[in-house]
Amino acid sequence: MVSVLFVCLGNICRSPMAEATFRAKVEDENLSEAIEVDSAGTGDWHVGKKPHEGTLAILRENNIKSDDLIARQFHGEDKKYDYIVAMDASNERNMKKILDSEHHGKVFKLLDLMDESREKEVPDPYYTGNFQEVYDLVESGCSRLLNKIKKDNQLKEGNTYGK
Ligand code: 4NP
Fold it and tell me: Is 144 annotated in the active site?
């Protein structure tokens, strides 16, 4: 099983959007048995809450399931994930403070994968209110991430890697 964790600040806007969007892509490619997905926030203010209404609305518009998305805080045990995907540079810094340096190589920003894009941080819609802009970035970043994971782990559609 390959495991992927998306991380933002509050775990109510960007990272649950990425979790749900990425999971839908994994399901579309019949890779649910091979790739496990979760999300967390570096902050604890919204622990136990459902995503922000803006995130729920944009997922609904795009026919992406949002049930079971409940905010939790990032913690040291999350070092077990193979890919730890930050939404912005501050999330990345905060996680590296918590994780031993041997795990730092697993941490990167989603938009680091978008070679052609100069924007490397997913803007925080909690402050900007622009959930569409975030969805567009998350959507293309998640496609790129799935391709990378398939290549890194030699996964083919319907693969049951590690089972
Ligand atoms: P997120 O957005 O990191 O994309 O979930 C935020 C949500 C809540 C807060 C900050 C960012 N907050 O300060 O409560």
Answer: no
What span, in angstroms and rounded, lies between the C-alpha atoms of 49 and 25? 24
Q: Is residue 98 part of a domain?
A: yes
Give CA separation, 77 vs 39, 68, 95, 99, 138, in Å: 13, 21, 11, 9, 25
Share in percent of the chain as helix, strand, coil (round to 5): 45, 15, 40
Q: What is the pLDDT of residues 68-120, one digit of tens each?
A: 999 999 999 999 999 999 999 999 999 999 999 999 999 999 999 998 878 89
Cβ of 91 below 6 Å from ligand 1: no
CATH of the domain at 119: 3.40.50.2300
Give residue for tokens 């997922």.
59
Residue nearest to atom 8 of ligand 1 (CA): 10
